[in-house]
Amino acid sequence: MVGVGSPLRTDAKPTGAPQSHLEAGSMTIELAPVDLRAILSEARVRQLDLTRVPLLSKDQSLTSATAAMREARHGSALVCEAGQLIGIVTERDILRAVGGNLPMSTPVCDIMTSRPKTLGLDDSLFDAVQWMDRGGYRRLPVVDGDGCAAGIVDLRTVVNFLVEQMPSIVYNQASRRVLTVRDCEGA
């Protein structure tokens, strides 16, 4: 039993052993063993559907950066010079600038994060997730071998990739209705 009154049960297994199935009420869900670390370690950034974001020049204004980000429906843009990535600007950077009373004509180079941590196309997804976790990054720019911006890895990109890799686990989970205690049990 997971907890008193909980309808979710697992077979007793030694600590660290992968679960083979879950029982929720009268429904049993078979789970294939998944080695998440292996999936993340084997996958390369080039395999991901990278998020395309606006590419800005360092002299573009906050107004044009905001418009480009709004049009792309993404909270960041990459700043490039001579085809090379030199920075990233996010909605948080723009909010800080506006909160600090900077004019919207301010160039993005004044508020961008210069020389951001980047990923290469041959880096593993494990590296990407590890950097996102350690650095507190929600987005990491990806550059090709020449240092040109190729896109961004963000949390949505990682989740979508994992869903594609493990559809039977993600899509076959019991619904919240099945897992919710309806009648109190016990004393």
Output the keywords.
single chain, 187 residues, alpha+beta, CBS-domain, 2 domains, four-stranded mixed β-sheet, three-stranded antiparallel β-sheet, 7 helices, 31% helix, globular, disordered N terminus
Description of the molecule:
The structure is a single chain. The chain has 187 residues and is α+β, with helices and mostly antiparallel strands. The chain has 2 domains: 1-33, no CATH class; 41-163, CBS-domain (Roll), CATH 3.10.580.10. Helix content is 31%, strand content 22%. The strands form 3 sheets. A 4-stranded mixed β-sheet has the order 4-5-6-7. A 3-stranded antiparallel β-sheet has the order 1-2-3, with no helix packed on it. Strands 8-9-10 form a 3-stranded mixed β-sheet. Helix 1 (36-42) packs across helix 4. The longest helix has 11 residues, at 62-72.
- CATH superfamily label of the largest domain: CBS-domain
Report the helical percentage.
25-40%
Structural class: alpha+beta
Roughly what fraction of the amino acids lie in strands? 15-25%
| Average residue pLDDT | 82
| Large-scale geometry | globular
Element-by-element helix/strand order: EEEHEHEEHEEHEEHHH
Strands side by side in the biggest sheet: 4-5-6-7
